[in-house]
Amino acid sequence: MNALVIGTLPPPVTERSRGLLAEVLRLREKGATLRVLSPTQNSVAHDYLELRGAASAVEVALAVRKADFVVVQLEPGFPLEENASRAGRAFGLASLAMALRNAPGEVVVRLHSLHDLPSGAGGRAAEALWSRSDRIEVGSGEVLEHLAASLSPSTAGKLTLALPPVEIGGGREARAAIAEVGAGAGLEAVTAIVRARAASDRASILADRAAGAGQVRARQRVFLWEWAPHPGAGVPAFADEVHHERSGQGSTLRRAARAALLAAEARPLTRPLARSARTARRLLAKI
Predict the structure, then answer these.
(1) Residue 182: its pLDDT value, please?
(2) pTM reported for the whole predicted model
């Protein structure tokens, strides 16, 4: 199964991105061939949307054509700008609904929070998007109740709760420590318990002969996560599937064109034209 996930994975680490990561891990466990298309440039993904707002629907329409299963997460900036007008909101949602019609398989639309969709989840444009989806996943029971009250009965039947967000970093250990010493515990008490557990874990690793001999094979980590607070925590191994264009690759003409674009981007007067040319080249490569 070819699965396409459109949305932002950590980083940045938010409940929304951790919730989408849980869905990505579920699809990988099912053996799906996964591709992540992100509207956020600094997140882990196979590819990134070049256009913002309603214009990104053009890229979505091209990407979903060969996908058997599509997951689309609505979030600030996608599929419409955060400060979009009422007309801009309607145009952005309608454009995304039309783009998803190109998907030959199942379509899942995710809405983690009501704040992720400006002006609420109602309206004709939003109803067109909900109608196109085969399933609507929401991040909490509160969002589910709100949508169930505002949508038609046939559309409300598609509502389901999303998987719990994946734990990243020390959040799980800190909450366990707070539960152990009590809700009114101070920072020093919680820190002491977390440090004691970390020391115990280190001691158990050092006591393991296989680990001491370097025979433990850790799960491959994504190189983009090396600078994150907790590198590789529950992150799929995307690194071997991501292709990067190096400056020394390609024909002489290609390298000359790349150098010309870089030079044009360095000058304020020619920077907009150079960036438009780069964006157009990437869009043509996706067709």
Answers:
(1) 57
(2) 0.64
Look up residue 265 and give its two tokens: 């981007």
C-beta separation of 67 from 73 below 8 A: no
Evaluate whether the domain defined by 2-161 bears CATH number 3.40.50.2000.
Answer: yes
Separation of alpha carbons 94 and 101, rounded Å: 11
Return the residue matching tokens 């990067």: 244
What would the two tokens of residue 28 be? 């990988």
Residue 70's identity, in one-letter code, is V
pLDDT of residue 207: 58
pLDDT of residue 171: 53
The residue type found at 192 is A
User: Which portions of the chain are predicted below pLDDT 50?
Assistant: 209-248
Residue by residue, what is the 3-state secondary structure of the chain?
CEEEEECCCCCCCCHHHHHHHHHHHHHHHCCCEEEEEECCCCCCCCEECCCCHHHHHHHHHHHHHHCCEEEEEEECCECCCCCCCHHHHHHHHHHHHHHHCCCCCEEEEEECCHHHCCCCCCCHHHHHHHHHCCEEEECCHHHHHHHHHHCCHHHHCCEEECCCCCCCCCHHHHHHHHHHHCCCCCHHHHHHHHHHHHHHHHHHHHHCHHHHCCCCCCCCCCHHHCCCCCCCCCCCCCHHHCCCCCCCCCCHHHHHHHHHHHHHHCCCCCHHHHHHHHHHHHHHHHC
Domain boundaries, the chain: 2-161, 171-220, 252-286
C-alpha dist (Å) from residue 191 to 40, 137, 173, 198 = 34, 36, 10, 11
